[in-house]
Fold this protein.
Amino acid sequence: MSNASGIDAEGPWFDGVEALRGREMDPVNAAQAKAKHVAIVGAVKLCLNMSGFPNLEIVEAGQRLGGRVHTAYLEGGPYDYQYQEMGPMRFPVSIQYTGTNETIPINDMKLVFQLADIMNQLNEGQKNYTVEFIPWIQESPNGLHYFSGLKNADGLPPTAKEVKSNPKLALPVPADPIVGNITDLISDIACSPKTMAAAAKNVFTAYKAFINTGLGGLGGDDWSEFAYVHNHLKYSLNATDQAVNAGEFGGFGGNSLWDVIYECEYFGATTWRTIDGGLNKLPNSFYPHVGPITAMGRAIERAEFLSDSDQVRLSWKEKYTDIAYKDKTYDYAIISAPFSKVRSWRFPNTSKNSIGID
């Protein structure tokens, strides 16, 4: 897709889908197309299968579904509640601004809730595969606040409520007016109600607007947070470093300010949900539908187009110490593994039957 085709390559994917609906597509042999052998690397096949593509195979690098969604059960099962989330752990639902009654839903999170509803319908109430959401407590006045050995008189760490009532229990932070000015400036850009509301309503169009016209028309993605504060606004290196690398918005200095907007929107949420029994419950709900056609333990390292057969060959090693590769050929390969993994693969110059959708 490109701008020349009438589809904005940097815009929301659903805008491209809408544009394609109004086009006259070339006639195809549906039965022949659906008979193709398709590999899906790092993804699930549910949508294609429901559309009538039966000859599918999922290729997973690990030994389970879910990828970065992973719950470690320390003792017992999901409903013994002795588990730790090793990846994502909760979903922001909505934002309510202080002093107003306005509640703004975070719409992109609805994709997760809608997916869970679909899986629950497909699994017809089977307890092991049911996904149920429960409230998540993001902050509690009883949460412990322990820094640099500061404790109560009884030797126990203070709670957040105790620190609020007794600032001496908090780690003192030297007040620098200039650093405070920079922090306020970043907050005005990234955490304003208007910006957060736009991102909550439609994160795709909000991002598009930011990279085009953000930072007063400079282009939001043309500047890192550090470069914008130091090079454009001319604050000193010392003050910039304190504000963007160690302050309230620390850790984003080398990144676009969009990262700060993203954090403000999600961590500014006032209501949250998580999955009862751990987030593993969501990928596990796919097992009845994709388990039999999933090849586990295939960490793909190569993707090649075979011109003689017009197919794609995927190669992997069963053990990292192996010299020889295992391989399998497909009519098409849909690659949706994380780019951090795909970038290390060996590709030929062209792979016309390999479709990247990461």
